[in-house]
């Protein structure tokens, strides 16, 4: 067994250049400014239609958090030609499936149908954009539904409030300080007029990217897209200017409480740049180095060898305007939270001082190669990636070329980026404690 | 490859596809149904019993392999968790490769390798697959069980138990299984701190040596492979995996309760209740009514267009999602029907009613032809969308092997779905959705939920703890925090309405309010003055009907012109309530308990024949309950205060609801005057 492993290892060095699949696509603009991306894959009779709007929780008024997500719910309530309550029925009775989701940066809607229903998918998305019906009745029902969503996903879940608390402490000015689900009292206070104004401002073709992916005929799809979407009037240009955060120059501390936990957690959070930057990708590699897999530094040290932690990890929360880099651990037994921070810090200092080994570097490259192949494994996933790269990064072809950025990152860069962002005077240290400790 | 044309999904939209202007008021019709191809799987069997299924697909340069050990289920008893611990220990190195090297190799290849008590899975790029499958085979055949690793896994498992102790979802799922299957069933038993502490390293080794065998196992390989090379690879890697003798099993076959009952599990930290109506079903993949059961469940609660979702979420807004599910199982009566939702505390009782209503409706009334048609379309669409994924083709082949199904089972699948009738649906609903013999399992916050549940529910409520042991009904009030007394509650109340200083300046009050009784307007004018004078005048359409007057020492009641002097005990009572903000008199009462009212906690002060409720958070008075002697004995007369608004900087309730037997009066305050409009004559 052992012998075989060694012979194969030498073969690896040759294997790396093998070319992974390329995602072919075509993109263009309609006259009203709507961006269109087509990706044809006729290997299965399935087609995805999706629209990504460049609007998310960060576009909300500070006293109306949760609006963007709430709005996503409202846009299933019906349109001029789709009666209230019919949306889901039309989708499922035509063999399709659909959903939507909202982040701080964007909102995404999609349908997946057997390929003979391409036109239906386009019709529904164009209806949603052209003339949704936003009424008090829908607002009232969805108000309750969203509250239940929050209770289900946040209030009743262990460790679910940690991100909210990290963001609240890390951002003082930028709207990333709030959560996507928002404050319920803000939603209660929102008026119908405000919802209508939100729609008018952000749900316009010049703020949207339409993706059609899967089994279709290009010429026919273009004709249908033009027929359904081009008549939709262009909206005003959207001007975005978000306040800039002051740099963090001194380590600061916070506490947060969770009634659903018994075992506390410790987090160290650092402010990092936009996900569009090269540095953000270097930080992705650093998190994988620290916590991706059983041989990763933090797992091996804290969980396995020293048995100090139940769990340890790194999260690179990448967002459009800023990133937040979070190191965390849950103690095992009587180990103190401070002792975990100390151990984690040691590893960060090593990263800042020494180059990671050639072997570890190769391991990172292999992992990212593997992620890249798997990222494009489903047509629905490709549709989402195309939209995201276009809307948030402004470069659709990153779906093919982002891997080249990762490949070009050097060991020296990893060290430099760790030195640039992961210093103790640039961070928040937050204790996340059981409510009973309050 | 076999081609199937779906005739169902759509009839053709022939003639009018020309390039005329689109009419967006008409929902587009589907085009001709697409052709689908069922993926092909290759199969072979090794002499040790391992069955191998391969699906070749070159779209991406990757391969995945999954091993399933399909032994009959068995009981672990007082060592429940032993198989899980065994599974967790697998992959921590082998007798050939130390743990760190093993993990390092897996990570270096960018691969995923995982082991569990009943199998293992790997995924990697094509170029590394040979080595990665080799690592998996090594882990399967040659695990290393050391005391050191064992201790680690035990410690981590114990902490893991602790970390989910307060999770409402985790407790609900544990207790649901324990109650429905019984603790003496492999699906009903669960891990506890005690059962984990009972496990020794030797138990883990025994578990591996007994059950981790190729006899009942399937290895499924999907992706960018050359089947004949892969066959050789598998033979080389797995031929020497030794088969064993799997012991026969015995456990109780679960049964349903005779009549529906509620099982309540108290979780004081819950903000939502997990509500589930559950019963056992005896249903296996391929049964004659299998398809009808699937469709019936789909119509009842299969998704975002099903009845439960439309009712509990879209209509009532009780929940983020309400669903039902029916699971088939190879073992006798080991499948489950479950309809449920996570709902906010205050609507728990109503959610139970609505879920049961929907279950009964689908049992006692036929579904509509349109519902059946749509449901079939949903299943067929789902089939079409997924059937060409290589993993689905592999799964189909695995099911055919595991369940001994005919080889054309999935080719006939759409046909079978299509032939289900309205009667079939109802029969399946009656047979499998046992609203009449179900456990309604509610995991939630008793103090918020139980009062209403007892009121609305026709079922007996049995109480269980978080480990499914029978227990008592939880206390319905909360302990009073240290330092809080009747006096401090009243001080907080006075502060909340505006502060002692402002109140001290109030010498008199006039409160005018209105209510409707049987369509007629009722006016009420109440006057209060210091030190303790009061008068109440009730009139209807300008005619005074009732007057109650107290001048500080004596008083009378006048009804329709009939005057009656107050008796001694009446005088005692009114003395305490006559002054403006007479609440300060309640300081001499006793702080009895904390009780939730509509989801908000309130302090309850007992004073004489009264209980007075002050909201814990806001400090405001929310309710008073007076006990009086009625013709049929003692009656409770509640008054509820809400809609507090400021008048001259002091907060007054502007809505007062009074209940007297079956009669409810809702008073809306129209005007409040402070230090004006009152003279001594008013109290004569």
Defining key terms:
heterodimer, A: 438 residues, alpha+beta, Cytochrome Bc1 Complex, Chain A, domain 1, six-stranded mixed beta sheet, five-stranded mixed beta sheet, 11 strands, B: 684 residues, outer membrane lipoprotein receptor (LolB), chain A, 3 domains, 13-stranded antiparallel beta sheet, 19 helices, 30% strand, disordered N terminus, Pept_M16_N (chain A), hydrolase (chain A)
The total domain count of chain B is 3
Largest sheet of chain A: 6 strands, mixed
Number of helices of chain B: 19
CATH homologous superfamily identity of the largest domain in chain A:
Metalloenzyme, LuxS/M16 peptidase-like
Query: What is the string of helix and strand elements of chain A?
Result: HEEEHHEEHHHHHEHEEHHEEHHHHHE
Helix content of chain A: 40-55%
Task: Please report the distance between the alpha carbons of the first and last residues of chain B.
Answer: 102 Å
Terminal-residue CA separation of chain A: 55 Å
CATH architecture of the largest domain in chain A: 2-Layer Sandwich
CATH fold annotation of the largest domain in chain B: Cytochrome Bc1 Complex, Chain A, domain 1
Structurally, the number of domains of chain A stands at 2
Tell me what portion of residues of chain B adopts beta-strand conformation. 25-35%
Q: Indicate the mean pLDDT of chain A.
A: 90
Instruction: Give me the count of strands of chain A.
Output: 11
Please give the CATH class of the largest domain in chain B. Answer: Alpha Beta
What this model shows, in words?
The complex is a heterodimer of chains A (438) and B (684). With 438 residues, chain A is an alpha+beta fold. Chain A has two domains: 26-229, Cytochrome Bc1 Complex, Chain A, domain 1, CATH 3.30.830.10; 252-437, Metalloenzyme, LuxS/M16 peptidase-like (Cytochrome Bc1 Complex, Chain A, domain 1). Chain A is built from 16 helices and eleven strands. Chain A has helices spanning 2-15, 67-74, 87-93, 118-130, 136-155, 162-170, 184-189, 192-202, 218-229, 278-291, 297-305, 337-353, 358-375, 379-393, 398-408, 411-421; strands at residues 26-29, 35-40, 46-53, 97-102, 107-114, 208-214, 252-258, 265-273, 309-318, 322-331, 427-434. In chain A, helix 4 runs parallel beside helix 9 (218-229), helix 10 crosses helix 16 and helix 12 (337-353) packs across helix 16. Chain A is globular. Chain A starts with a helix and ends with a strand. With 684 residues, chain B is an alpha+beta fold. Chain B folds into three domains: 42-238, Cytochrome Bc1 Complex, Chain A, domain 1 (2-Layer Sandwich), CATH 3.30.830.10; 272-471, Cytochrome Bc1 Complex, Chain A, domain 1 (2-Layer Sandwich), CATH 3.30.830.10; 486-683, Clam (outer membrane lipoprotein receptor (LolB), chain A). Chain B has a 13-stranded antiparallel β-sheet, with helices on one face. A seven-stranded mixed β-sheet of chain B has the order 11-12-10-13-9-14-15, sandwiched between helices. In chain B, helix 9 crosses helix 15 and helix 11 (348-364) crosses helix 15. The longest helix of chain B is centred in the middle third of the chain and has 18 residues, at 369-386. Chain B is elongated. The model of chain B is unreliable at 1-20 (pLDDT under 50). Classes of the chains: A alpha+beta (438), B alpha+beta (684). At the A-B interface, helix 1, helix 3, strand 5, helix 4 and helix 5 of A face helix 2, strand 7, helix 3, helix 4 and helix 10 of B.
